[in-house]
Each structure stands twice: as structure tokens, then as C-alpha cells.
Amino acid sequence: xxxxxxxxxxxxxxxxxxxxxxxxxxxxxxxxxxxxxxxxxxxxxxxxxxxxxxxxxxxxxxxxxxxxxxxxxxxxxxxxxxxxxxxxxxxxxxxxxxxxxxxxxxxxxxxxxxxxxxxxxxxxxxxxxxxxxxxxxxxxxxxxxxxxxxxxxxxxxxxxxxxxxxxxxxxxxxxxxxxxxxxxxxxxxxxxxxxxxxxxxxxxxxxxxxxxxxxxxxxxxxxxxxxxxxxxxxxxxxxxxxxxxxxxxxxxxxxxxxxxxxxxxxxxxxxxxxxxxxxxxxxxxxxxxxxxxxxxxxxxxxxxxxxxxxxxxxxxxxxxxxxxxxxxxxxxxxxxxxxxxxxxxxxxxxxxxxxxxxxxxxxxxxxxxxxxxxxxxxxxxx
Length: 382
Hints:
Blueprint: H1 2-16, E1 20-28, E2 35-45, E3 48-57, E4 61-67, H2 68-81, E5 83-90, E6 93-99, E7 105-111, H3 134-138, H4 153-173, E8 178-184, H5 190-202, E9 206-213, H6 216-229, E10 234-238, E11 251-255, H7 261-271, E12 276-280, H8 285-290, H9 304-325, E13 328-334, E14 345-351, H10 357-371, H11 377-381
Parallel strand pairs: 8-9, 8-11, 9-10, 11-12
Antiparallel strand pairs: 1-2, 1-5, 2-3, 3-4, 5-6, 6-7, 12-14, 13-14
Helix pairs in contact: 1-2, 4-5, 9-10
């Protein structure tokens, strides 16, 4: 049918002119299949434009994404066989295709003030770690020409996610232009370097960061790379977390510090009255070993894998409550996807005047009682 072909051609034209907003198909020819509408959007997926069809049924929705040519062919098929009405909304006008009972088609046009609609399906993420940053090539994430090394893509995504979290947390909770940060268990320094560069370069803060690491070879490696990058206020020292003493810590970071080192780091932050604590808890052995041989009433805990996960959550909940007991507002959320690692929890503590110490203590006592726990290690440290 010529008018349908003309309408599909108009859709193609507005897409090429970057004027497409949305397209709706309505008034189905047959109601027996339950399909009521189709809503069509232009989306960007992995840097390619596609037409996304949302098939609205009475009891379910289905979404299919088509390459542009295939999508236009699907549109023509749907209009020819299944729908009598289509509304194309563009940045400049609204076009309507209407088919009467005899199948005669008409197209109308009316001007619209509709603002341009974002067509991004995969929202363009802000890259807080630019690929041409020297530290990325020094750490083996990019080539010297600034190209991402494929096997380091996951690490690069992790860096940007980490910087997104830290950007928000520091801006919200730390009202200082001169900052002292300590990264306890800094490892090879990927995130430490990234944070230093971001806070200095992008945020314009006068920041000093000290990385605490037990492995001397990593300390030497990171100090060498910091010197090559010209990061004068970034240093790494070989020391156990429990032996590090500094009462001037504005932000304390402890990502996957092993064994009871997570608790040692949290205790140092509390003692220093840090404004912000950022922790990815690790190693929950202390509580799990303590409850071995004790009968747990919950039937969930007769299965080893559930018991392990349960006491991981109990341990981190007690840690969060201990922070609240000492004047922090705490929150726990997922840092990276489960597909990369199960150790994907981020625990944040921000200084707050509204923390309820007594209520936190009561919750801790109740958790210990119901789970037959004598103590959690951080309790004794603080």
C-alpha cells in the first residue's frame, strides 16, 4: 500500500535527520492475539543505532531490537497486517497514519513543540579515567598511545565505577579542599593511582594519598610508577595495617583487606575520626570459626553454603552497626557485578550527627544472641 510505504519512508528520513523521538502503533486489526500496541524507540547499543520494538500485550511485554533496515521492514509488515494507526513524533512535527475499514490510508502532519528526546539505551557513561592518562599506561591498562588493552577492559570499567562512587561520596561528605587519604591494602595500586589523578586533575583538590601494603615488591613498584607519573603526593609504604598510626585521616579506604585486616582498618578510621570510610569487606572467618559446633536454630543454616553466606552478611551488618555506634551513617551496596566476583559489597561510613549509638548497640547485641556469637573482632578493637 503506497501510503504505508510513504509513511515508512518518512520514518527513515527523520532518523537520518536525527529528528526521531518515538513511534507508536495502535488500533490492532485483530484482538485475538492480545497484542495491543507497539512502542518504537531509536536506541544506541554498543555505538550502533537500532530500532527497539516494545510489543505490548494484555499480560506481558516483549522487546526486540532491530538493525535500522530490518526495523523499517518490520514496521511496514506490522502496518500492513496488524495495525490501523501509527503516530510518529519527531522534533519538528507529528505524523499520523490512519487506515479506514476499507484499508484506505491517509497521512496527516502537524507541527509540534516536542523537545528532542534522548535516544540512548546504553547511557553514555562519564569516563573519569581518560584513556590518555599516563598512569594507565604505566600500570599496563592502556598502550603508550592511549588504547585500552582488551584483557584490561574489566579493570578499566572497575576503575571508572570506583571513581564514580568516590566522586559522589567525597563531594557529599567531605567539605575540605585539602585532603589526607589512606588506602589500606592498596595492592598494585590501580584504584589508588586513579583516585589521586582524578581528585588532583579533575576536582582540583590538594590531596595526599598514602597506600599501605605488606608486599614490599608492590610497594617498590607503585612508588616507582608514582615518581614516573609525577604524583608527588602519592606514596606507598610497607607496613601492617594494625601498625600504621596516623590521627589525621580524612578518608580511609580499605578494599578487600584480608583476614581481620578489614576490622583493623575500620578501627583506625574510627580512632582518627575520619570524615569518610570506604570499605569492601573481606574475609569473614573470625565469626564463622567462632560458631563452629554451635547449634543454629534456623533450618537455613544446616546447609554449609547458606551458613557461609549468612555469616558473611551477619559480619558485615555488625561492622556497619559498629560504625553507627561511633557516629557514622552507614550504607551497604553492590560495588561490582556478581559475574566478576562474589566479594562485591561496598560498606560506606560517613560522619553524621544523626547516628543513634544506643539503637545500634541493641541491634548488635540482638544479632549476636540469635546467632550465638560471642564477639565480632572490630568490637574489641574499638
